[in-house]
Amino acid sequence: MTTHDSTPVAGSAADTAADTASASADDRRAVTGKRRIAFAAYVADAGRLPGLQTLLRSLALTNRALCEDVVVLHPGLPDAAFDAAHRLHPRLTPRTAAGRHDVFRLDGYDTVIALTPALVVLGRLDALLRLRTGVAAVPRPGPDGVPDPRHGIPDDGLLVIQRQDLDHAVPPAAVPDVPESLLVPLDSRYDFRALRLGDDLAVPEGVVVLNFADTPTTCTGPAHEARARFELDDEAFRAAYLALPGAKHPDLLLHLALPFPDGSRPPIDLVRQLAEIHRGRGHHDLAVALLGEAVAGRPDLPRCHETLGVCLMALSRYEEAETHLLLATASPDFAPRAYGQLARLAWLLGRTEDARGYALAGLESDPTDANCRSWYARTSEMVTAGATAPDTPPGEQLAHVALFAEGDENAGDKVLPEAVRSCFTADTGPGRWHQQHAHLLVDEPGLERLNARRAVIVGGGGLFLPDTAPNGNSGWQWNIPDDVLARITVPLAVFAVGYNVFDGQRYRRERFAASLRALVERSAFFGLRNHGSVARVRELLPASLREKVRYQPCPTTVARHLDRRLAEPAVREDTVLINCAYDRAGLRFGHDYGHFLAEMAAAIRAISGAAEARYAAHMPADERFVDDLRREHGLILPVEPLYLLSNDAIRDLYRRTRLVIGMRGHAGMIPFGCGTPVISLVSHPKLAYFLADIDRPDWGVSVHERALGARLAERALAVLADHPAAVADVHDRQRTLWSATRENLALLRELTGLPDPFGEPGPGADPVVPAPRSAVGEDRAAPSLRTAPPTP
């Protein structure tokens, strides 16, 4: 995994290179099945480079929110020949090639949109990005002048190539002969010949790509005027892109806006947009550098002060953050949002009364503000709870550092802390446990409270994630400075934590890697919840520390062993529960969300003949699936709002269904732990990692899978047809996880001195088993479904 030794300058080539390396390091397409798309163009000689540059400008100006890789194939031109093209696009990569036919064998991509320097883009290319089969092209006229798909693949026009279909169908010849069965005809507007228009005909309305192949350079007329719109110098092109209305792709916007021209004062809205991009990527220092200069001496910029305050908070520069957020409250339009952030800041610092006051001030500004209302409720409950301290002496308690969901937050994060505590003690309440929210700053009083306890347990959940409540102290979700961590004197155990970085997610690793090393060095036990996380974290550690990283399954996956009530046979309803997730939807779905939705609709219709399909929402935001499914496909699913249920009610709901099809990690792990068969919709590596750990990769299907609907329905109907065998297989897989957990808990009892809440293993207890064979190569192809139910 790549690390960066220095902080690049905003908008520099180093910044782009660092981002590219970071994205490559977190490429887990082999696990998630995520489709990688590229544009490709062959440049036969230096004389075609101006045409390439015009093509790139047209692509950016007509598709402002699109920024895929652009691979420029060439016969061996010098690197300097592409300097002008690099200035136009941040993800351009030259590659030597024997000819244009090499677009059919472009390594590292699943979908290739082949262009030529003779093309200009006049409209949106979304429809091309959604194509999933064969080789698509506008048919060329046959001998009789009629367009004929069988006339072959054009060598001077647009192509959309699906590599999956060609890997075995196209021989490694100089010019591939694509089988007729793979040809997909496109409408002529996607490759319209300018030659047809002559010097006087207007470009037809709706033309998306205009092709100037074989058109004399001396020609004039409407077609050439359309091309001339994109023949701009760099300064004019940058200005034209920045002036476009609507959302722009972050990569393109940063690349074309930075660095600012010398002597110019950029518009304040543009500065704030760029800062928001840096913030979204975890580059809070770059955002602060931009905004700090822009707002100096300008108290009249509340929106910028709010963004600056949030970024300073992410760097743990709390005093400065509070100052700028207070400046933002001067505007009635931004006061509620700023007060909500101030409430969070005060809460992070343990100033509960201040947090409550800020939340109340926000409600006075806008009584309907949901964030301020949530903070007011949370801090009011904390004040009440703080008035009744438990009678248990601190030395008899364990400290638990975790995320503790409240209200209508993630249902999985409500169940998880209780499951962790159940591994150590039968009593999971405040009498036995001191609760420390991971996001709260561990200051000197906080350190004293931790050291007063018997031990500190950190976990579980995906705490190794950079962009949920970022802080500058650790770079992950536990807000603890290294020097404070070093002064924890009681046993410290990291238990069932996950490395939750998304496929394609970029973040800086320096602070996280240093904090991680300090954490592993200090920990008496360091257990991660899947072998994928173990591998990722070991990559960030020196060799001397790697063996300290152990495998500890998420305790939700062994719930039947933690709670004897769950071991009893479940009385099941004739239902299938479905769950989807929408946080970081772009990273989850890419360009395939429409495909995913249509395939899910087909699968639900097929499954509904065997059981009632219902929807299990872990968060209110999850219900977007139900809304989209009804609007786009006319399907209505009853909703089970798990975020409103108690932990017992959540487990009971998952116990009583016959099958769960889930995208969230705990929409698979919780029902599995209760003994219910699961199928995972893989949009994040952690789902595939879990299935590898239990040696059942075929219990998952990628959300990008071309035949998602058919494969999902096939697998689900097989489970429902022989349900007892499927349940027995879940129980069998669970035993391996419980065996690993029991071994680890034996080590932890030596550290904590606590008795075993489960008693000694009885006769015939499962032996400790090694890692399943499929966990060794976790970066393999995305899991696929079996055609038959598993053998119990």
From TrEMBL:
Residues 12-24, 763-772 have a biased composition (Low complexity). This is Tetratricopeptide repeat protein. It holds the Pfam family PS_pyruv_trans. SUPFAM superfamilies: TPR-like (SSF48452). Residues 456-683 form the Polysaccharide pyruvyl transferase domain. InterPro entries: Polysacch_pyruvyl_Trfase, TPR-like_helical_dom_sf. Residues 1-26, 753-792 are annotated as: Disordered.
